[in-house]
Design a protein that fits this description.
By secondary structure, this protein is α+β, with helices and mostly antiparallel strands. The chain has a domain of 93 residues. The protein contains 3 helices and 4 strands. Strands 1-2-3-4 form a 4-stranded antiparallel β-sheet, with no helix packed on it. The model has no long low-confidence stretch (mean pLDDT 94).
């Protein structure tokens, strides 16, 4: 019921992590690597608690609107090109408490500010992102 409520947005309090350097020594909660993939796999695909279009809206345009980020959250002319390409039939969180540094599967491409960060399932080394402030 909560997921379907029209005012509920979806987010995560997980940390930005990497399986390299000092961050690799940390034992983060699995949500740091798979919160949104879990939502899509478990609550959308398996449980059918919410449909895919609603889930994507609750993860993208709804929070962007709430934060006053007018150039984010939608695919449209004049918006920033932040895109996650995923296979709805395969997307899945892989991180566990025992092995938390596991990327989600079924996400072949991630584009940030129009630059491929993940292409064909591999990190490109690009880091075009930046911290955003509430408008």
């Amino acid at each position: 019921m909560v997921l379907r409520h029209p005012l509920v947005m979806l987010g995560s309090d997980g940390s930005a992590m990497a399986p390299v350097g000092r961050a690799a020594q940390a034992r983060p909660h699995p949500r740091s690597y798979g919160a949104f993939a879990r939502l899509l796999a478990y609550y959308v695909r398996e449980r059918r608690a919410i449909d895919l279009a609603q889930a994507v809206r609750k993860m993208t345009s709804m929070p962007a609107d709430q934060m006053g980020l007018a150039d984010r959250g939608r695919i449209a002319r004049g918006k920033k090109a932040d895109l996650v390409v995923f296979d709805p039939a395969r997307v899945k969180d892989e991180a566990t408490f025992e092995q938390p540094h596991q990327y989600a599967s079924g996400i072949p491409h991630v584009i940030v500010n129009g630059v491929f960060v993940v292409e064909n399932g591999r990190h490109t080394g690009a880091k075009p992102g930046r911290a955003l402030r509430r408008a």
